[in-house]
Write a structure and sequence with these properties.
Largest sheet: 12 strands, mixed
Strand content: 15-25%
Number of helices: 12
Helix content: 25-40%
CATH topology of the largest domain: Isopropylmalate Dehydrogenase
Number of domains: 2
Structural class: alpha/beta
Shape: globular
Order of helices and strands: EHEHEHEHEHHEEHHEHEHEHEEH
CATH superfamily of the largest domain: Isopropylmalate Dehydrogenase
Length: 336
C-alpha cells in the first residue's frame, strides 16, 4: 500500500478545505492513494458535512481513510468564515504548512506532501518572507532556491519558468548561463526520479519575440540560452532551442518535448493554464521529498459556496502518489 500523503490545507478561508474534502469523497472514483489533511478541522466542517476523524499521527491515516477524512488538527486560530481571510487564518495556513513539511521530511509514514492554496498577501502580513510556498518548502528541506525547480504540469504539457515571481522588467538581468544550467539539470533529474522519464527532452523558449530574430530584437538567445543549451548537450541532457515561444505550444510542437523551459512566469503559465486550468499541478523538483500543489489560488470569492472544482487537487494527489512510487522503485533498484 502507498504511504499516505500529507495535505496542508492552505488558508482556512479559501477553497483548500473544500477541495480536500471533495477529493476524499472522490477517492474511489479516482483510485486515490490514502491521504490526511493538516489544518483546522473546523474549516472543513464550515464547508462540508461528510465524515471527518481526527488522528494523532500519520501512521493512523491508512486505517481511517476508507471511512472518514483523517485530519491532524492544528490549534484553533480564531473564527473561520469561508471567503473572509484574516491574520488568524494566515497563521493557521503557515502552521499547517510547517507541520506538514516537517512530517514529510522526518516521518517514514508519509509518502509525500501536497500543499493547498494560500494567500501570500495575508502571509506577508505575519512576517512570511518567501516568494511562495515552493521557496519555503525548499528552505525547510535544506535546498537552495537555485536547486529547487517549480514545474507546472497537466496531462499534455509540462513547463518550467526559469525565473518565477519577479517583475518582467527584471527578467533579462536575472537570466544567466549558470541559472539556466542549474534549473535544467534539476529538471532533467526530477523528470527521471519523479516521472520515470529516462532521457527527458527539454525544449527552451527564447526570451524575445521570434527568439531574438538572430540578434535583431535581442541577444539573450545568442549570449545566454544557446551557450547553456550547448553545455547541457555536452553533459548528455537532451536540450534543444531556443525556439520562438509563440510556436511552442500547439499540439504538434508539444509532442516533441517532455518539458518546455521558459524564461519567465507568464511565458510558462499562460499556456499551461489555458490547456489545464482545472487539472494543472504545481510540483517542486530537486527536493528530498515529493511535493505537489493544485495550480490555482485560494478563490476566496467562491469559498463556502460549494462551487470549487477539486480537479486540480485530485491531480496533485495522483501526481504525488505516482512520484513517490517512482522514487521507491529507484531505491529498490539501487539507483535513487
Amino acid at each position: 500500500m502507498n504511504l499516505p500523503l500529507a495535505i496542508a490545507m492552505g488558508d482556512p478561508a479559501g477553497v483548500g478545505p473544500e477541495i480536500t474534502a471533495k477529493a476524499w469523497k472522490a477517492r474511489e472514483l479516482h483510485s486515490l492513494a490514502p491521504f490526511f489533511a493538516v489544518g483546522d478541522e473546523r474549516a472543513i466542517a464550515a464547508v462540508w458535512d461528510g465524515p471527518v476523524q481526527r488522528i494523532s499521527g500519520p501512521e493512523e491515516a491508512a486505517a481511517v481513510f476508507p471511512s472518514a477524512l483523517p485530519v491532524i488538527s492544528v490549534a484553533d486560530t480564531g473564527e473561520i468564515v469561508p471567503g473572509k481571510p484574516d491574520i488568524d487564518g494566515a497563521r493557521c495556513a503557515l502552521q499547517s504548512l510547517e507541520l506538514a513539511v516537517g512530517m514529510a521530511r522526518s516521518s517514514d509514514a508519509v509518502g509525500g506532501l501536497v500543499t493547498g492554496p494560500v494567500s501570500k498577501a495575508q502571509l506577508y502580513d505575519i512576517g512570511f518572507t518567501h516568494p511562495g510556498q515552493t521557496e519555503f518548502v525548499a528552505e525547510r528541506c535544506g535546498v537552495s532556491s537555485e536547486n529547487a525547480v517549480m514545474m507546472l504540469a497537466g496531462p499534455t504539457l509540462r513547463v518550467v519558468p526559469i525565473t518565477v515571481h519577479v517583475a518582467l522588467k527584471d527578467v533579462p538581468g536575472l537570466l544567466s548561463i549558470e541559472l539556466i544550467l542549474a534549473k535544467a539539470r534539476v529538471t532533467a533529474r526530477g523528470l527521471y526520479r519523479n516521472f520515470g522519464i529516462e532521457r527527458p527532452r527539454l525544449a527552451f523558449a527564447g526570451l524575445n519575440p521570434h527568439a531574438g530574430e538572430g540578434g535583431a530584437i535581442g541577444r539573450e538567445e545568442i549570449e545566454l540560452l544557446k551557450p547553456a543549451i550547448e553545455q547541457l548537450r555536452e553533459e548528455g541532457i537532451d536540450a534543444v532551442g531556443p525556439f520562438a515561444a509563440d510556436t511552442m505550444f500547439h499540439p504538434r510542437a508539444r509532442a516533441g518535448y517532455d518539458v518546455a523551459m521558459c524564461c519567465y512566469h507568464d511565458q510558462a503559465l499562460v499556456p499551461l493554464k489555458t490547456l489545464h486550468f482545472d487539472d494543472g499541478v504545481n510540483t517542486t523538483l530537486g527536493l528530498p521529498i515529493v511535493r505537489t500543489s493544485p495550480d490555482h489560488g485560494t478563490a476566496f470569492g467562491i469559498a463556502g459556496k460549494d462551487e470549487a472544482n477539486p480537479g486540480a487537487m485530485i491531480a496533485a494527489i495522483r501526481m504525488a502518489a505516482s512520484a513517490a512510487q517512482h522514487r521507491a522503485e529507484l531505491v529498490t533498484a539501487g539507483t535513487p
